[in-house]
Amino acid sequence: MTAGPVQAIAAVIPAAGVGKRMQAAVPKQYLMLNGKTILEHSVGRILCQPQISAVWLALDKADPYFAATAIAGSAIKRVAGGNERVHSVLNALEQIHPAVYPWVLVHDAARPLIRQHDISRLISRCLKAGQGGILACPVRDTMKRGKTTTAGNMVAATVTREQLWHALTPQLFPTRQLRQAITGALAAGETITDEASAMEWAGQPVLLMEGQADNIKITHPADLTLAAYFLAQQDLEQQHREQTGK
Hints:
Helices cover 31% and strands 26% of the residues. By secondary structure, the chain is an alpha/beta fold.
């Protein structure tokens, strides 16, 4: 991993969650996907990105699984995870010196299918603009706002899908601004679901860059089957490129 001294980029991967919705015996980031844990896939793709200079991985203090992974002996810097994802990210940010790493890229541990091309495009656009940004996918389905009644969940209204996006990761922001935004938002009692929401609260601009739809987050059991299919398709695409030189 290499990067220039002016635009050096650190990466943060929060991986301290337990993934209750997966209903698995281990946290979802340690479930197997084509012979490797989901975490190994996700971290490996960040480690392969030449513009990333260093990686911080936020793990639960009592994590008993990481030591058995193939990435345990790598140059990854470990940091204690927090109660929520945002606290894990902040714990890592507090160890990253913004003068050394002016930019920080945050990626979900449960997104093992991120493509190198999308990471490179996001970095290039953000550095060129001097603004942070995120990968996202336009909403394609009809959107409904729900309401809870005594009869159960009901439709309250149809929401126009124009200008609606599914937020993905990675998300890339200036290190100092992101740390200040998260700290301020938490102090104000705001709910921070991703890095962009903290920057929005702070009034900072956030670029939207369309990413690949197969960059899914593994949350439910069915997602693991879908991820295996997408991974196989990506492998076929890579084989085709190697054979044809395209």
